[in-house]
Design brief:
Elements (H helix, E strand, L loop, with lengths): L15 E6 L3 H11 L5 E7 L2 H11 L3 E5 L13 H4 L5 E6 L4 H9 L4 E4 L3 H14 L6
Parallel strand pairs: 1-2, 1-3, 3-4, 4-5
Length: 140
């Protein structure tokens, strides 16, 4: 488990709890960097596989799961039932290096609220997470 990295010291009920699930340490590090200055957001855990994501989401109860669609387990896509295996209140923000129609369909098929290509994460991740927490995601 990659659970040690967390900025949750002074968490209150308004803090958006985020679980980052990506098999790439570079991508996880980049997401940590992008979110590091956001006092209303806290990365509560990191996972490098779908199995870790499901296990961690059960006890961390994140509001948002930033989920890579292409991790080694489950033949490159998350299992279709992943949404039901996560905390029921968690929203999935699916990401992929491949920003194509096939990936968008896969994201929709697993119950993701939104799909973002990783090339645009720097500009879109923070506003998207804020909208997801408010329950008012509007596609750009």
């Amino acid at each position: 488990m990659i659970e040690g990295r967390s900025n949750v010291q002074n968490r209150d009920t308004s803090t958006i709890k985020i679980l980052v699930a990506d098999d790439s340490e570079v991508v996880r590090r980049g997401i940590r960097h992008v979110l590091s200055a956001q006092t209303e957001m806290a990365i509560v855990g990191e996972a490098a596989s779908y199995a870790q994501t499901i296990q961690m989401a059960g006890h961390l109860e994140p509001h948002v799961v930033v989920l890579d669609l292409h991790m080694p387990d489950e033949t490159n896509f998350p299992p279709p039932e992943i949404k039901s295996l996560l905390n029921r209140d968690s929203q999935i923000l699916a990401i992929s290096v491949w920003d194509d129609e096939y990936s968008r369909e896969q994201a929709e098929g697993i119950g993701a609220t939104v799909f973002l290509g990783t090339m645009n994460l720097t500009n879109t991740l923070i506003p998207t997470i804020k909208q997801l927490k408010r329950g008012r995601y509007a596609a750009p």
